[in-house]
Amino acid sequence: MSLKELSDVTYFDLNNEINIPVNNQIPLNKDKEALDAFIKQNVVPNTKEFTDLRDRFDYLIDNDYIEPEFFNQYDFSFVESLYDYLKGENFHFKSFMAAYKFYAQYALKTDDNAFYLENYIDRVAMNALYFADGNEDLAMSLADEMVHQRYQPATPSFLNAGRKRRGELVSCFLISTTDDMNTIGRTINSALQLSRIGGGVGINLSNLRAAGDPIKHIEGAASGVVPVMKLLEDSFSYSNQLGQRQGAGVVYLSVFHPDIVQFLSAKKENADEKIRLKTLSLGVTVPDKFYELTQNNEDMYLFSPYDVEREYGKPFSYVDITAEYDNMVANDTIKKTKIPARELEDEISKLQQESGYPYVVNVDTANRANPIQGKIIMSNLCSEIMQIQTPGTVNDKQEYETMGTDVSCNLGSTNIVNLMTSPDFGKSVSAMTRALTFVTDTSHIESVPTVQNGNDLAHSIGLGAMGLHSFLAKNQIEYGAPESVEFTGVYFMLLNYWTLVASNEIARERQTTFHNFENSDYADGSYFDKYVADDFGPQSDRVKELFEGIFIPTTADWATLRDNVKKDGLYNQNRLAVAPNGSISYINDTTASLHPIINKVEERQEKKIGKIYYPAPYLSNETMPYYKSAYDMDMRKVINVYAAAQEHVDQSLSLTLFMRSTIPAGTYEWKDGHTNKMTTRDLNILRHYAFRKGIKSIYYIRTFTDGEEEVGANQCESCVI
Questions:
Q1: What EC number(s) does its UniProt record assign (predicted)?
Q2: What is the enclosing helix (H) or strand (E) of 359?
Q3: Mean pLDDT of successive 10-residue segments in the chain (721 residues)?
Q4: Bridge partners of residue 601, in order along the sequence
Q5: What CA–CA distance (Å, rounded) separates 659 from 630?
Q6: Per-residue DSSP letters for 603-670?
C-alpha cells in the first residue's frame, strides 16, 4: 500500500474525537487510540522490511539514501551494539501528533514515497553516529540523550543528518549590507543562495542611505531601503527550494533611520501594491535613546546614514546612537528630520496589532551584555541569534576586498522535563555542546563567503530549551509564579555553566579558541564576576526540591571555571539561544520553547489532512488548572520568565507576546476605567516593561481577535527547532 494512497484509516477520526467532550470531560483516551491506530494502519504496513541491520544499511548506502563516509568510521559491531541499546530503551511516542509529525516530516522515505525507511530510533541512531564523527563514546552518549528526548537537534540537523541527498544542517543566517551598489548586489545574491540552501535569512539594511540622500553629489537621487526590500522579497519568493517551501527572510532597520516610517508602511494591508511587502518579515533595532525619548514625550531626530558614515568613518549600524545622539543633533553636516517619538512608537504598535510585525531588537541591551569584542547590529528571522558582525567591502568584480563576518545559526534544544531527570545533567549538556560544535565545524557555506568566514572564526552554537510550561504544569506550578521565575533562572544558569565547561574542554583538547578570545570578557575573567560574587542556585524550598540530586555550582566552582577559561579559553564564541521550537516540540511531546500554551487542546490545520488535535502534555485533572492559556495571561509574567533566562543566555530568546483584542477584566491595572479593547498603549507599556527587565528582543505579537482568529501567528518553519 503506497503512502500516497492510504485509505480505510481511522486515526484522523479518532484524533478529532478529542474535541468532542464526553460528560463535560476531554476524552484523552481517544488520542491514545488514534496513536495506536496510526502505528497499526499506517506505520507498520508501510515500513520497508529488511532481513537484518546489515541488510538495511547496505540497501541505504547502495541506493544513495545515506552517506557512506560517516558510517564507515565505525566498526559494524559498534553500530549493532548502539542499536541493541536503543531498542532496549523501548521508545514509544506518547501522542498521535508526535508520531504523525515524525513520519510525515522527518522519517526517511523511498524515492517513490511508497515506504518508510526508518523509525524514530533509526533517525536517532543516524544523528548520533553522524554528529559523533567516529567517536564511539560520544555516539553512545548522544543516542542516550536523544532516545530519552533530553536533547533535540534543530529541524535541519535532525532531518538531514546522514542523508546523501540533503540540505544544510544549519537553521538560519544573518547578513549585513553596506551603502554601495556592489554590496547591495552581493547581498541580493547571498539572499538567493542562502534561501536555496534552506533556512531563514536576516538582513540588516540600516547602513543604506535614505530616500532623498545624494548619489554622486546629486541631491534626492537615492531611492531608500524600500525598493531593496522589494528586490529581497522577490528573491526569497524565487529561491524556494524547488517549490518545497517559501523562502523566508527578515529585514532590520534602525528606528533612527529616515526611512523608518516607509519601512513600516510597506507591511500594512492597505499599502500601495508598488511598495507592499506580503511575505518579507520586518524587524527594528531600538537603542536605549528611543525609550528615553518616548518616555519623556520628546521629538526624535532621524539621521542620514550617508552623512553619519562620512562623519564617523564607519557604517550607520556601528555608531552608538545613544551615546552620540546629542552630538549628531548638534552636527549641522548631518542631515536630519524631526518627528514626535511617540508617534513612531504608536506606528510600531499599530503594525504589530495588524500583522504581528515588526520584531524588536533592543540593540543597546544586547551589546551591554555582550562579552565579545565587537558590535551586535541585528538578529535573525526568529530574533534569538545575536552575534557580532563586521562589515565587508565589495569591488566592481563583485569580489570581497575586505572580508566581513556574518552569521550562520547552529541550533539545538534541551527538553526541560526530560533533562531534569537526567542521571548526569552536566554530561548531557556536554554531549549536546559537542554535537552542535560538529555542525559548526562541518558547515561550509562557500557561496556566501562572509557567512563562511564568520562561522570559521566564531564556532558559534545555540543551545536552548523547550517544554517549560509542561514542566511547570507537571509539577503543579503556575506559569509566572515566583517559583517558575526562580526555576527558569536556575535551569539556564546550569545550561550556561555546563556549556562553558564543555567549550573550555574542547578548547583545551584542540588548543584552539574562537577568534579574538583574548579580547573578550571571558579572557580577563570579568564575565564571571557576578557568578563568583553571588549564589545563583535555588533559594526557595520548592525550587530546591525540584533540583534535588542535581549538581548546583557554588561560587567556588564558578571561580575554578573562570580560571580554567582564562587559562585555556573557549572554543565557541556563542553558546546559548532559545528558538521558537515549532513542529519539533510535538515530536518531543512537550510544549514549545519557554512560552505558555495557547489551548489545553491545540487545534492545528494540516495541509491536505484537515484539523489535528493535540492535548497539552501531561494534561490531567491535576495539571489542568496550571495550563492557563497565554491569551488569558498578564504578559508581564511571560516577560519575567524570559528575563530570568536571559540573565544567563549570551544570545537571546524568541519572546512572543500573546494579546486578546478584548482584554479580560483585571489583566492589566492601567485598563481599569478605560476601554477593554487592546490599544497601541498596551503594547507600548509592555515593550517598555520588557526593556526595563533586560529583554534583548521581542519576536511576534500574536493577537486573538474577537472573531476567534489569530493575527501575527508564526508561520516560520525555517528556524523553529
A1: 1.17.4.1
A2: strand 359-362
A3: 70 92 89 96 96 97 96 97 98 96 95 95 98 98 98 94 89 94 94 86 97 81 91 88 66 98 91 85 98 98 97 97 98 97 98 96 98 98 97 91 94 97 98 98 93 97 98 98 98 98 98 98 98 97 98 98 98 97 89 95 80 93 95 97 98 97 93 92 98 97 79 50 44
A4: 615
A5: 8
A6: EEEETTTEEEEEEPTT-STTTGGG---GGGS-HHHHHHHHHHHHTT-SS-B---EEEESBPPTTS-GG
Q: Tens digit of pLDDT for each residue in 604-636?
A: 887 667 789 999 999 999 999 999 999 999 999
Question: Kind of pairing, strands 610-615 and 601-606?
Answer: antiparallel
**Largest Cα–Cα distance in the chain?**
80
- The conformational region for residue 374 under phi > 0 = left, psi -120 to 50 = alpha, else beta, is left
What is the sign of the dihedral through the CA atoms of 426, 427, 428 and 434? positive
Do residues 618 and 31 lie in contact, with contact meaning Cβ atoms separated by under 8 Å? no
Grid cell listed for 668:
492589566
Q: Which of 420, 464, 654 is nearest to 574 (CA)?
A: 464
Name the CA dihedral angle for 586, 385, 633, 664, rounded to a multiple of 10 degrees. Answer: -110
Q: Note whether 124 and 89 are within 8 A (CB).
A: no
- Residue 40 gets which letter from DSSP? I
DSSP string across 490-501: HHHHHHHHHHHH
The arrangement of strands across the sheet holding 710-711 comes to 657-660, 701-704, 710-711
Q: Is the dihedral of CA 652, 585, 618, 603 positive or negative?
A: positive
Query: Do 387 and 516 form a contact (C-beta atoms < 8 A)?
Result: no
Beta strand 359-362 with 281-286 is: parallel
Reported as a single tens digit per residue, the pLDDT across 58-71 is 999 999 999 999 99
Task: Determine the Cα–Cα distance for residues 22 and 41; give it in Å rounded to an integer.
Answer: 26
Whether residue 43 contacts residue 119, with contact meaning beta carbons closer than 8 Å, is answered with yes
Q: What is each CA distance from 674 to 449, 668, 688, 706, in whole angstroms? A: 55, 11, 20, 18
Domain map (residue ranges) of the chain: 172-329+341-407
Active site positions, annotated: 380, 382, 384
33/18 Cα distance (integer angstroms) = 10
Beta bridge partners of 652: none
In order of 34, 177, 283, 441, 652, the CA distances from 574 in angstroms are 42, 22, 22, 14, 11
- The C-alpha cell of 29 is what? 483516551
CB 392 within 8 A of CB 400: yes
Residue found by looking up cell 554528529 in the block: 131
CATH architecture, domain 172-329+341-407: Alpha-Beta Barrel (3.20)
* pLDDT score, position 220: 66
CA distances from 616 to 31, 92, 179, 591, 713 (A): 11, 17, 49, 7, 19
